[in-house]
Specification:
The complex is a heterodimer of chains A (262) and B (232). Chain A is an alpha/beta fold and 262 residues long. Chain A is built from ten helices and ten strands. Chain A starts with 10 loop residues before the first strand and ends in a 5-residue tail after the last helix. With 232 residues, chain B is α/β, with parallel strands linked by helices. Chain B has seven helices and nine strands, in the order E-E-E-H-E-E-H-E-H-H-H-E-H-E-H-E. In chain B, the strands form two sheets. Chain B has a five-stranded parallel β-sheet with strand order 6-7-8-3-9, with helices on both faces. Chain B has a four-stranded antiparallel β-sheet with strand order 2-1-4-5, covered by helices on one side. Chain B starts with a strand and ends in an 8-residue tail after the last strand. The chains are: A alpha/beta (262), B alpha/beta (232).
């Protein structure tokens, strides 16, 4: 990660708000994310984390505020104004989205190789041998045995499915990846392996990432910065180790003090 | 010449919201500076705020008042007011911190734990590993342990891995929190040598050491932290 403060951010959110009828989703969220930066969004269920992630990734339209993204051409654009086709293209190429439930991010009855290859074909890859080779390389990187390349993910374990979903997302070399509770629902040893893998990949590829999690250990391990959400608002935002070791807000102190020692 | 690190009237108070907003002043009016090639040792009894001062300099704890100025290549950053990105930038190139305990990550080999600060820098991974190996060797970590994650290591071994990690990259400012606490005499003198090497190469060092012999060997200035006790 580079640290020149004057350089342009990759993604900028300004005053994002969303209501579901009378229910508040999130209110007045603003921040910037730079290339190679990992930002964790933490808070308990219902605090607005997932709403925010969906607003940022254009899956939900905000009531107020905007999201700007800096394309590969270096131009910063308001995503509400770029048009559906271009947003879809962004989603297929420059962005990745890792769902908590791998079944939402994978095609469960298509082979593992096909799942990875499909993203490549969406960006114009046509040579079968090349696609298969790249898919196999990605299975290696996420520690899935190449011998399983022709098997469908419904025959995979939960941890393998999640690793396959990550491979499918990263194969097009995105610059930004959204993750919604990527380690939720996995048991501890599987979780540790996945975290280690993510940590290595994010660092190696210089990826920017927005990670929604309720697990502060995940945030500590993966993120540079943390945003703490409560009741739809960001109540504390700062350097990850600073927020966790010297929490300022009452709610953050409660979250940090609620961690069970291993 | 201007100091690499200068604290001006720095202070810190914890507010414990879960204890009814109890305010715990830790330090106040912290004033000292460190030049290149100099080692300042923070002295004082346990609980006087020595580790808190190191954490404030590293940006791990917030600084509520005053300034913490870090100077490098003609630019000055006030850690007390810097953006997270600026602090991360300083940690990548300017500040190194050796904590009392290694925060070991499961599944990462000792050699890679040590090499990590260099891998993040532009140097190649292979070179980082070679340098990490040299340091581990010097700190008497047996080679058969290099590929093992340090989670299972003894306290002294973990501390030496932590020291190797902190000393590998050339950082102009090094913060050491009891680097020799659980080491035997031979390893203690190795760490004293490493610190002397760093000083010769121009690093500014702030250290907490309880061992009188080590303190005599490395300290250029001793700062008494009890003089920064907040008025009750």
């Amino acid at each position: 990660m580079t640290a020149t403060p004057q350089e342009r951010p990759l993604l900028a959110a300004q005053g994002l708000s969303k209501r579901y009828g009378r229910q508040l989703g999130c209110r007045d969220v603003s921040f910037e994310l730079h290339a190679g930066e990992v930002l964790a969004i933490v808070g308990e269920s219902g605090s607005g984390k997932t709403t925010l992630l969906q607003l940022l990734s254009c899956q939900l339209e905000p009531d107020a505020g905007r999201v700007c993204y800096c394309g590969r051409d270096g131009v910063m654009r308001d995503l509400a104004e770029v048009g559906e086709a271009q947003r879809r293209f962004l989603f297929r190429t420059d962005w990745g989205y890792v769902h908590q439930d791998p079944a939402l991010g994978l095609r469960m009855s298509v082979s593992a190789g096909g799942n990875v290859g499909e993203r490549l074909m969406a960006v114009g890859a046509r040579h079968y041998g090349h696609i298969r080779r790249t898919a196999a390389e990605w299975l290696d990187r996420v520690e899935i045995d190449r011998a399983r390349i022709d098997d469908a993910p419904r025959t995979y374990s939960g941890g393998m499915r999640q690793r396959l979903q990550i491979a499918r997302n990263l194969v097009t070399q995105p610059r930004l990846i959204f993750m919604d509770e990527p380690t939720g629902g996995l048991d501890a040893s599987v979780q540790a392996r996945l975290l280690d893998l993510l940590r290595g990949l994010v660092c190696e590829l210089g990826l920017a990432a927005l990670i929604v999690t309720h697990d502060l250990a995940v945030a500590r391990l993966l993120s540079h910065r943390i945003m703490v959400m409560k009741g739809g608002e960001v109540i504390e935002h700062g350097l990850t180790d600073q927020v966790l070791d010297d929490p300022r807000e009452a709610y953050t102190q409660l979250l940090v003090s609620s961690i069970l020692p291993a | 010449m201007s100091a690499v690190l200068e604290l001006r009237n720095a202070g810190k108070t914890f507010t414990m919201h879960l204890q009814g907003g109890l305010r715990l002043p830790v330090v106040a009016g912290v004033d000292f500076s460190v030049e290149a090639g100099q080692c300042v040792v923070l002295a004082g009894p346990s609980g006087a705020g020595k580790s808190s001062i190191l954490k404030m300099i590293f940006g791990n704890y917030r600084c509520d008042s005053g300034q913490i100025l870090v100077r490098q290549h003609g630019t000055t950053t006030d850690v007390a007011r810097a953006q997270p990105r600026q602090i991360l930038g300083l940690r990548q190139t300017v500040m190194g911190y050796v904590s009392q305990f290694l925060r070991a990550v499961p599944r990462v080999a000792a050699l890679d734990v040590v090499a990590e600060p260099l891998v993040a820098a532009p140097e190649s991974r292979a070179l980082a590993r070679v340098q990490a190996a040299e340091l581990l060797h010097r700190l008497a970590i047996p080679e058969r342990l290099w590929q093992v994650p340090p989670v299972t290591f003894s306290g002294g071994e973990q501390q030496r891995v932590n020291i190797a990690r902190g000393f590998l990259a050339e950082r102009p400012l090094l913060l050491l929190d009891e680097p020799t606490a659980s080491l035997d005499a031979a390893n203690r003198s190795t760490v004293v040598e490493l610190i002397a090497d760093k000083k010769r190469r121009g690093a500014a060092i702030v250290a907490i050491v309880h061992d009188d012999e080590v303190r005599r060997a490395i300290a250029d200035i001793v700062v008494d932290v009890t003089s920064f006790a907040p008025a009750a």
